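Hi W.,

Here's what went into the run:
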Amino acid sequence: MTLDVAGITKRFGPLEVLKGVDLSVAQGNVVAILGPSGSGKTTLLRCLNFLERADGGSLTFDGERFDLAHMSRKDILRLRRKTAFVFQSYNLFLNKTALENVTEGLVTARKMNKADAVVKAERALERVGMLDRKDHYPVQLSGGQQQRVAIARALATDPEIIYFDEPTSALDPELIGEVLAVMRKLAEDGQTQLVVTHEMNFARNVSTKVVFMEDGAVVEEGPSQGFFENPREERVKAFLQTMERTP
Amino acid sequence: MNGRLLGILADSFPKILIPGLTRTIPLTAISFSLAMVIAVAVALAQFAGVRGLKQVCRFYIWVIRGTPLLVQLFVVFYGLPHVGVVIEPFTAAIFVFSINEGAYSAEIIRAALESVPVGQLEAGYCVGMSYPQIIRRIVLPQALRTAFPALGNSLIAMLKDTSLVSVVTVTEMMMATKQLNAIYYEPLALYLETAFIYLMFCTVLTKLQSWGERKLSVYERREAAA
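Here's what came out:
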């Protein structure tokens, strides 16, 4: 799997949120997108999964090229079924148990038979350490547990890439660790991930590549090794210093 | 209370109750069921923003909510035959009640659909579901849970409103009571007796409503089932 994005643009009214962003993610890589609030990180991720429609740019997925401004509904559905998305606010289906949350995409969207889907879902829940809570509804789980179920829901569909949109930002500090641990384990298993995050340690230690965005554009990118030690751009330096100072 | 009055009450009780069971209840049940079909369709057409249909739905709701139920009954029962459309009274009543309740319930369900967090829809997209699948499996079940208490209210109100159809010659409880009163002339006792039977019917509905709410709220309880 390779993902290549070129020249992606997006505006909300007069506001130009993405000003031609290029990005590539290779098989098995974990790419972290860093940057201050309002830099367009989340919008970029949402455009890649068509939760927002980009105004321009192209996306090459597994060698197949798509024009982001002119996507057919069929292509959108097809691409979404190869990818998965983890939200900042989890967005588990509130009327479904943890297990049903995971089987839903298999049974309803992919027409897998129920018994196979349950086996697969239970395996995914086990990987995130949530199998013992499979019959709980989202409201009965902590934020960290809900996010782990959300990751299981993403995993169960065997996505070629998982997009994470600030997966720990809504969590209480003591719950962040359990979610990051799961993501680190996925990375070790070779799961390709594109992660918008404010977790500097995760970006430094788990990700293979770091992309720094500001004001709708990529300011600097490079292998995570070295990125934190020797950022080239002053803006990146300043941002990293601020982040290091906040606990 | 004297013996004559007791005799009248005892004699009239089944004569009021039976039209209640054969007219009031079926009229309410059938009309409300049809109203739900109309309401879900009208609410979804607006929620999904189906072009053209949305305006039609708004027009329908505007007209129905802006005119009295009694006037609507008269238009269908007395007005339409004047231009050659004759509908049997009970059918006419079902027609008017379904259309009327459909408009009110459509608004209740539309509001409930809009109260479902947009993240639920987005999560559905991200696991590869299509819009109709998400509506059917995720959004509508949650919306109906939210709408349930308000719909229960409407059902109870409708059961009582069926007394209006006595004026279009359907022999339901109210009509039956009027006829009995013409024989015995005991308006206070007889109308109180009818009120009591309505109260019983509504009590059953209230019980059903709270049972239904408990059933539906299973995913809202903070403590997990053992």
